[in-house]
Amino acid sequence: MSKSSRYITLSRLPGSACSLEIVADSLSYRKLIRKNLDIRSYNRELHIYQRLHSSFFPALFDAYIDNFGGHIILTYIQGRTLDEIIKEEELSLERIIHIGISLCEALSCLHSMCPAIIHLDLKPSNLILTEVDEIAIIDFGSAEEVWSDINDNRSHYGTRGYAPPEQSGGIVDVRADIFAVGKILGRMLSEVSGADRRCREYRKIRAIIWKACAADPSNRYESAGALEECLSELLRLKSIWKGRLSGVVLLSGIILFGMILFGARISKASWDSGIFVEEEQEMIEETGLLNIGSLVRDKAFEIQIERLMEQGEDFECDKGELSRLLFATEDYIYDLIKESDKHGDCLSGLHKLCHIYFLREDILEEQMRLRVPEIARNGILLIHKMKTGYSDQKLLMEERYFTECLITILYEKGDKRDEILLEGYRERVKEIDKELEAMEIENQK
User: What are phi and psi of 112, to 5 degrees?
Assistant: First the structure.
């Protein structure tokens, strides 16, 4: 029996650059995957699959060449792609962290080989969540072997939105996969419900994502193991807090009741600093008040944001603390946008956020500066939501400010693909200036 007749095609898998088929082995009656390739790709991928010996990856079952090209037979991994799960289910923060840890474990296995194998096309559709809720990485069509002493400046295949900047013609190493993990975590996090967005773990995982997705590889996590360690620590802290809460809810209620009854106040000195003094912070953490969304926590949060807004250029804090406050402020403002009577405050907040991102360039990473276009676009969308026409001078001036922010950042990027956008934004500024001039003439009359 020839190899080609041994495997019976059951179905074809759509959406792949090469021909992927689900086949049945007529000898062992196993369900398998057949990948049909040209000879050059066949030899390269076969070498990669011969080195993979872990439940994190599909195993090589067979391989053969015929008149139609090369064919690699792989074990079939039962489960659903992460892309399907994201679309069909609402993932909790805890499950997102678990998936991130499992993915890092798989990458550690891949990157620790000699030479290391980097996948270079990690994305939700190339990850399968197995029946035991572990990640399996598939599709090694873009994978490369990387020796530490080799500098490779050629372009590598990947998927836009998940591939790092250096993958389009730079030197790549294991940190290219770290960038993709950050993007995948961000994709899952974007579907998290509003309640989970206000907890401390959400802000911490956002900080982890920003580090993983740094534009400069030297600012990312050095390895999948380092990223896994941060996620595991976050999961451990979440478990500790969950255990504490079950025993302190009653105590917290008593404390809150006592505060309301006796008009307890946090000392003014603590609030003026924008951050709790050490003794008060320890008291609140021990009682679990921070984790049950208490009035105390909300008030502290509002005051920190107020100070960040009003004194952005003079706000004394390190890079990590400022980053966390900026992320928290963005979340806070976007939550307020949902309240119809808060639009004015939100517009002012988005304006000041852009201002702070420009002012604090000294300690903010370049990747954080790239938050400005998103914030500015949201500001413009909010303006259009607030007004029925262009009759409000203040709103026009706000739109001009946000448009100028977009022009500044896009110009700094120097990407030729942004030239059409830049021209459109510049034209819009000219239109706004004409409208403002007409309003000024009208007012003088």
Answer: -85, -5
Which pLDDT belongs to residue 28? 83
Nearest CA among 158, 177, 163, 209 for reference residue 106:
177
Q: Which amino acid is at 184?
A: I
22/416 Cα distance (integer angstroms): 42
Q: Whole-angstrom distance between the N-terminal and C-terminal Cα of the chain?
A: 95
pLDDT band at 59 (very low <50, low <70, confident <90, very high): very high
Bond into 115 cis (ω within 30): yes
Cross-strand bridge partners of residue 69: 66
- CA-wise closest residue to 124 among 89, 154, 165, 156: 89
| pLDDT value at residue 316 | 59
pTM summary value: 0.57
127: enclosing H helix or E strand: strand 127-130
Q: Is residue 98 a contact partner of residue 185, using CB atoms and an 8 Å limit?
A: no
Q: Is the pLDDT of residue 423 over 50?
A: yes
CA distances from 302 to 296, 328, 405 (A): 10, 10, 26
